[in-house]
Amino acid sequence: xxxxxxxxxxxxxxxxxxxxxIQGYIGIEHEKPATETGKPPAYWSVSGELRVENxxxxxxxxxxxxxxxVSFHIKTGERVGFVGxxxxxKSSLTLSLLRCIPTEGSVMYDGLKTSELNxxxxxxxxxxxxxxxxxxxxxxxxxxxxxxxxxxxxxxxALRAAGFFALQSEMDDGKIMLDxxxxxxxxxxxxxxxxxxxxxxxxxxxxxILILDEATSAIDYKTDSIxxxxxxxxxxxxxxxxxxxxxxxTIMDADKIMVLDAGHIVEFDSPEDNLxxxxxxx
Length: 282
Prior knowledge:
The protein is 38% helix and 22% strand. The protein is α/β, with parallel strands linked by helices. InterPro entries: AAA+_ATPase (IPR003593), ABC_transporter-like_ATP-bd (IPR003439), ABC_transporter_C-like (IPR050173), P-loop_NTPase (IPR027417).
């Protein structure tokens, strides 16, 4: 009897902890809700032009600034690499573009201020590939097209264009297809497969801005080469590519390289000019 009572009390305590967490999430500050005025025009976005002026950012309203009046312009179709030491502001800059942290200044994406756009419209038009993409439990099809917006032929083309099938050609086990099961978090896929799958999402969504947040830092050189080849061949000329760099060969064919230090832009020029400047400084 005493054991049963103890078990019941333990269950009540566990459920009470769950209620406490729910209450905590309800009480935190929420992001701005969508409004009619925040909806972009139907034709938006048609280009990947990005213009940033005096952008400052911090991780909390009363916290220290992690970016300090950053200004730059990325033309449609340009490939730009972000480099810098740990804590220089590379990831903070990408979070600022998605309005994930409090910001000050102006960010213009395809002619519209991002601060005036609904968050769902902004974030659905920019695709970011992190170091380890997360997948949901279900089929590959449900992860690639959760809302059933595309035909199977389009999805298979995106997977093929991203190099997903090419990566499997030398594997011993069977190929992963659209109806294959995916474990929670994509644990039954390698990190390289998840990265290429994330690239297939980009091709399907036709985003005009793609951000690679050190996406190839945790994969082998061969998989990195497949991803880089897909990026060069499959992305249209109006797609701007921003790469937070980990390996130098990843950004050496970029149009421009941005060097960040302590939240400031130190250099923003072509790879050749940046190397010439560093050589001159030495």
